[in-house]
Amino acid sequence: MKDYISTSHAGGLLSSQLEIRGNFDKPEAVALKGDISLDDFRLDDITRKTVASWRRFALRIDSLDMASNIFRFGEISLEKPYLFAEMYDKGDNFSNMMVTSSGEAAGSAAVDSINYSNPFTIMVGYVKEISRDYIISNYTASNTVIRNGHIVYNDYTLEDKFTYELEELALESGRIDS
Fold it and tell me: Are 44 and 79 in contact (CB under 8 A)?
């Protein structure tokens, strides 16, 4: 990640138990089911300030079948998420963490300038490309849960510093489907 984002720490524990079948030479011919989780994730900026973290992100995949256009998920849960966001006159704390093509932190780079060496920009383009080719018309999730969330937002673009803090955020939805 050091080639793409300037951090003092980025880490977590990725675990999965998946049953996968199909032809890996053709991603659209792959089907899978099982569990994926990313636990104890933390992302710190270069000053060692935690900007994003969570205790556990878990995804239960009941059936994901690209060929049949089936996307069935069980519970999607996020426990104890934390987000620290700051807005500056020239960007935000997340954009400033991005490494430019010259290998330096973006710093005061314009927010709307596109850096094609940035993997996040490339991923957004890839998702747009996939969504043009695949119409996800058959999706379900049994429920979505966020527990004990915390967001801190500082805005330095105004005359006076504006701070907004949300604690003990909780979200629970029932079944979501197409």
Answer: no
Q: What stretches of the chain show up as alpha helix (H) in DSSP?
A: 119-133
pLDDT band at 146 (very low <50, low <70, confident <90, very high): very high
Is the Cα dihedral 152, 156, 158, 161 positive or negative?
positive
Q: How many CA atoms lie within 13 A of 171 on its CB side?
A: 14
Classified as helix, coil or strand, 1 is coil
Predicted model pTM: 0.74
Chain-centroid distance of CA 68 in Å reads: 26
SS3 76: strand
For residue 69, give both structure tokens.
């256009």
Q: Is 89 left (phi over 0), alpha (psi -120 to 50) or beta?
A: alpha
pLDDT digits (tens, 9 = 90+) for 42-86: 999 999 999 999 999 999 999 988 888 889 999 999 999 999 999
* pLDDT, tens digit (0-9, with 9 covering 90-100), for 78-111: 999 999 999 999 889 999 898 876 555 555 344 4
Burial letters 138-161, b for 16+ CB under 10 A, else e: eeebbebebbebeeeebeeeeeee
